[in-house]
Amino acid sequence: MLIYDEQKNDLMLVEVKMRTYLPPKIRPRQIENYKEFWNDSILVLVVPEGNVFYAQKIGDLETKQVYYRLADFEKFQDIFTRVRTEDISHYKDIALQTMKKQRVSSTTEEKNE
Hints:
Blueprint: E1 2-5, E2 10-18, H1 28-38, E3 42-46, E4 53-57, H2 69-72, E5 74-75, H3 76-79, H4 85-112
Parallel strand pairs: 2-3
Antiparallel strand pairs: 1-2, 3-4, 4-5
């Protein structure tokens, strides 16, 4: 996703990953690829707990098997400072509902196999 900040006249590349389980797993090779090709981009992580939305600059992430939302990522609003609190709350509810549906769907598929 491309985000344009007209106040800073800046264009940011943002990758969003939603994880329905904790701790969130992101393949190390994927982070290595991001660092090689999009080191200045931002990774947004959506997880089913806490603040729900977290973000970190790719260049600031270490390559490892498991990421911890509070230790490895900042709150979304700390990176995207102009996003309104009420918008984050609104989308937080939508994200939580979506993740709940995905977990139920995955559980149902596993039982049917």
